[in-house]
Specification:
This protein is of the alpha/beta class. It contains 8 helices and 5 strands; from the N terminus they run αββαααβαβαβαα. It has a 5-stranded mixed beta sheet with strand order 2-1-3-4-5. Strand 3, helix 5 and strand 4 form a beta-alpha-beta unit. The longest helix is centred in the first third of the chain and has 15 residues. The N and C termini lie far apart (33 Å).
Length: 145
């Protein structure tokens, strides 16, 4: 298991334990996590705190040059909002735990020159499948259905 993907999974599990949606993310610069987060829309009553957005928020203000050297790890394929933030800040590589339960804007990332690696991690698939089956209304709200 990739250490950084595991850190994103740990974030997702923390979100689930808080009553939230189990999606986690970390931003890595030069082998060090500079931002970590998990979906906190439910916990914070937020419209934007997806896992990736929370990781950006927790990374804080970084020079653009730093973000252009980062890899973002996320447990789930990124939605249009999170994809936009990655493109805005010039993230060159995204590692995705899984895209079976939700396929986000991976094509746009690739089209814009971002390296996208999908791990097809079974623990990520299982975590999201269980959550979606048990909480369809929360899941549909989170993805805008």
């Amino acid at each position: 298991m990739d250490t950084f993907l595991q850190a994103a999974i740990d974030e997702a599990e923390q979100g689930l334990s808080e009553g939230g949606i189990p999606i986690g993310s970390v931003i890595v610069h030069n082998g060090k996590i500079i931002g970590r987060g998990h979906n906190r829309r439910i916990q914070k009553g937020s419209v934007i705190l997806h896992g990736e957005m929370d990781a950006f928020e927790n990374a804080g203000r970084q020079p653009a040059a730093v973000y252009r050297e980062c890899t973002l790890y996320t447990t789930l394929s990124p939605c249009p909002m999170c994809t936009g933030a990655m493109l805005l800040y010039g993230i060159p590589k995204v590692v995705i735990g899984e895209n079976k339960t939700f396929l986000g804007d991976e094509a746009l990332l690739k089209e814009r020159g971002v390296e996208v690696e999908v791990m097809n991690d079974e623990s990520c698939v299982e975590m999201m499948t269980n959550f979606i089956n048990q909480n369809p209304e929360l899941w549909n709200e989170d993805i805008g259905v």
